[in-house]
Design a protein that fits this description.
Layout lengths: L1 E9 L15 E9 L9 E10 L10 E10 L7 E11 L5 E12 L8 E11 L7 E13 L2 E11 L9 E11 L2
Antiparallel strand pairs: 1-2, 2-3, 3-4, 4-5, 5-6, 6-7, 7-8, 8-9, 9-10
């Protein structure tokens, strides 16, 4: 019921190129977690993630480090109500947001469909740049399966006082994700 995992990634990696590992600029992370099952109310997922990003010379990005805590627990008679809480903190300027706090609720098998998930979440973010306003995000999504191995997730986010766009009061972002396992 416990795990540890980690990763080392190219801090300059992008979808269009490969082979920048020789710069020696890495993003590293380690996660420690527990997945207890209490019978009723159900299974939980609790983890802490520590990360570090090296200074990136060409991108002129400073180094940084951070920590994140996530708590998720199945509740309800069927264990299909899943609230979550997440807090993260970053130091060093490698990210645009210094700290975040998020809460949300997922409902598994809504409308009686196995493996479907509907959720809503709210988050607060404090920008690294102290001259910017705090950012708030409200998000809702619905993941449904087309086949046993393919699902679609429409999502909408409403961002209040967006930190990276201080001239806007509210931005709305929609997305549609398709995932197929094979």
């Amino acid at each position: 019921n416990t795990y540890i995992m980690g990763g080392v990634h190219d801090a300059n990696g992008d979808a269009n190129s490969f082979g920048q590992l020789d710069r020696g600029e890495f993003f590293t992370a380690i996660e420690l977690g527990a997945t207890p099952n209490y019978g009723r109310p159900g299974a939980g997922l609790y983890h802490v993630t520590l990360w570090h990003s090296d200074k990136r010379e060409k991108a002129k990005a400073p180094s940084g480090r951070g920590i994140a805590f996530t708590l998720e627990q199945e509740l309800g008679p069927d264990g299909n109500i899943v609230p979550f809480v997440r807090y993260s903190y970053a130091d060093g300027g490698a990210t645009a947001i210094r700290q975040t706090f998020a809460v949300g609720l997922g409902l598994e098998e809504p409308f009686g469909y196995s493996s479907d998930l509907i959720g809503i979440g709210f988050s607060w973010g404090e920008p690294t740049d102290t001259t910017l306003n705090d950012q708030y995000v409200l998000e809702a999504f619905y993941r449904f399966y087309l086949t046993p191995l393919t699902h679609i997730t429409p999502d909408i986010q409403v961002i209040f006082d967006p930190a990276k766009n201080p001239t806007e009061d509210v931005l709305t972002v929609g997305s549609l994700r398709l995932r197929t396992l094979f």
